[in-house]
Amino acid sequence: MAEIIDGKLVTQVTRKKTAEMTARFKELTGVTPGLAVILVGDDPASAVYVRNKHKGCLDIGMNSFQIEYPKETTEEELLSKIKELNEDENVHGILVQLPLPKHINEDNVINAISPLKDVDAFHPENVGKILIGKYDFLPCTPAGVMELLAFYNIDIEGKECVVLGRSNIVGKPMSLLLLQKNGTVTVCHSRTKNLADITRRADILVVAIGKADFVTADMVKEGAVVIDVGINRKPDGKLTGDVDFNSVKEKASFITPVPGGVGPMTITMLLANTLTAAQKQVKIY
Ligand code: NDP
Questions:
Q1: Cα–Cα distance for residue pair 139/120, rounded to 1 Å
Q2: What domains sit in the chain, N to C, each tagged with a CATH number?
């Protein structure tokens, strides 16, 4: 029976540390780290994420600037706001909530954010830095997974790590972070053949595909560490991950639940990135 990785506990500990470092930063510099979050349109899930980010900032003593635009907003208007925020000394981190309405080109928007303020780490300059292992920010969800592994003293070096999913937001950066910690990494995706043969090799299996309860016990090695990034809503409205938690927990050594595993860590790492951004921008550091 697996030990359950408690994302809420790790979130509490990590946020407390970030709050203390934020207080110290404010004392030393007189500057309050500030995060600007832009929401375009009225997607209810995005609105919840933005509200949680706002609350997260206030809770740990940071400034939060919430900017909401109607869904008809043009790309030009959005880019002009980003330019203004890039130049605003009170704003150290900028995040544009994705997905954007279809008429706005996401790449243009991501590229417009100053890499120094890109606390999501989606800008190509920051992605490149991650690839070579010399980064300022890590994308929040994979960074959150690494925090969870570290908190539970789960060693990565020399381990067979399998990442299921290759998105730019989760799967690809996740695989790079595991590689940097000397894991032997395999990345699987929708065209992978004999998937279960590969996932069964994993000492550490990270799943991020967006398919409810997809990974079943027969796909997992006895004693594996199983990290479930997926968030799926079932017809009854409840949340579930990409891993069939009840069967896999009997076989794994560690497992993250959904909700309460990786999910809470994402905003926690965003707050940590905002503090890092402020430290990089304020001259005494
Ligand atoms: P994407 O849809 O961008 O990517 C999904 C990936 O899974 C793709 O690489 C796709 O392969 C692969 N995939 C899909 N179906 C299969 C399959 N049957 N077998 C093998 N691989 C498959 O999703 P994201 O990476 O953005 O998100 C993944 C999940 O994580 C979602 O549930 C999302 O809600 C959740 N998430 C959770 C976060 C958190 O804070 N906890 C943050 C971000 C995401 P291919 O490339 O070939 O299409």
A1: 5
A2: 30-114 (3.40.50.10860), 140-263 (3.40.50.720)
